[in-house]
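Morning F.,

Quick status update on the modeling queue. The single chain you submitted on Monday has been processed. Sequence for confirmation:
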Amino acid sequence: MREREPHGVLVVDKPRGPTSHDVVARVRKALKTRAVGHAGTLDPMATGVLVVAVGEGTKLVPWLTADDKTYAATIHLGTTTHSLDADGDVTASAPVPDDLARRLPAALEAERARKEQVPPAVSAIRIGGERAHALARAGKLGEAALPPRPVEVRSLTLERIAGADVDVVVEVMKGYYVRSLARDLAAALGTVGHLTALRRIRSGAFTIEHAIALDDVGPEALIPLDRAAAIALPVTVLDDDGVRAVSYGQRVAPAQMRDPHRAPSAWLDQSAHLVAVGECLEDGTGRVLRGFPRPT
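Structure tokens below.
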């Protein structure tokens, strides 16, 4: 008898070392399915929240790839590397100021106000059709060749100073590089620096409290599709008429739409099963963005 296909979302506490794709490969093997993807890459050095979608859950990835994320980071001052993290080769060193504690508040405030950021040369950004990290490895790209990109820092908190190490917690929007924070904060302090630890403690609505160890991945660890959608998105509950309209590919009547901001929401039936992800249009009707099969 064929095993039932797994569907849902895993929140994995990625260990240091494997790539995000390595984690996906482990999940595919553990759950015996190819239908696995992740929502938001973590560098090999980084640990923490990696949201992994399985089966029908892969259809949720556009809404699981959260705009806002929170990281705990350790920045080591006095040396820097070509990748701006501990996995890179040391490229420069500089003295760490004796009055570090006095200078830090102003440097941190400048980073909180940052609106543009130059990404690291070792990144997946495409330059002329090629990945920046490939050009950097070939010696064809320095950070000066990368244009700054818009960023938003929601909060930046100093946790600890221990010698040349500075621990911070930063909440940022999509597109922000914490490795670049290490470079820029160090520069504002008159030295150089790089990341020695990075842990994602939140990705959208999913936190480290939702996460399981990679070794514990299995069918029983899956967050069911309905619950995962309700965690990641606002919820709209449809009655039978609304569910019927969705099944026929029709717009949903305005009386059932409860989201005045027209943001995408998880549409559930009266039994809390996920019917669709949809949005409310200007005329008040609901439009399906992605439908999901109901359980049989």
